[in-house]
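Structure tokens please, single chain.
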Amino acid sequence: MLTEPVKLTIAEARVLGSLIEKEITTPDYYPLSMNALMNACNQRSNREPIMDLDEDELRQALHGLEAKQIAGRARSADGRVTKYEHWLGEAFNFSRAETALICVLLLRGPQTPGELRGRTERLHQFTEIGDVTAGLQKLMEREPSLAALLPRQPGARESRYAHLLCGPVESATTDAVDSIAAEPSQSVSQHEERIAQLESTIAELRGEVTALREKVDSLFG
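Here you go.
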């Protein structure tokens, strides 16, 4: 279990978050091949910011994660296609709730407890908002701390939380979206969430097709 502070690059954070997510949501296709991992990292839904990592950048990120003993080549993988996995359990011994929260924070940046509850549904079911804040509190109480509460933005109803795996997070300033609509309607927010979930499902299906093709190639290639 890690006891020293971890400082991930932005690419390493995206790779780690993607590996955690896919292990839970598509276990039959985990560990991930390089191609499947690239698709997961570069998804257009459920990712903020959207990234376009190439294979060289992915390999560099994986090398960095392996050096930090957080992720790398799958230890039990067989076949001709190299697969990759995370070792978050060994590194931090997270609960399922902590794993879900750190995963979504890695993939989507600072979020409110309400946003985290909705966006972790496929990873872990939080019955109440209080369960979310309790999980965040556990991350904050780790030594070293792995999460932080950010100052509330002007016009915002809730404060946001951020992970600290990429180092300290400076106080966020109001961005263009906040200045245009500080209090978006609930119906619009729910509509956007449904669209994001559909896009995520499509992206995962594409990943499954890619994995199936690779399996066929390895068997009959």
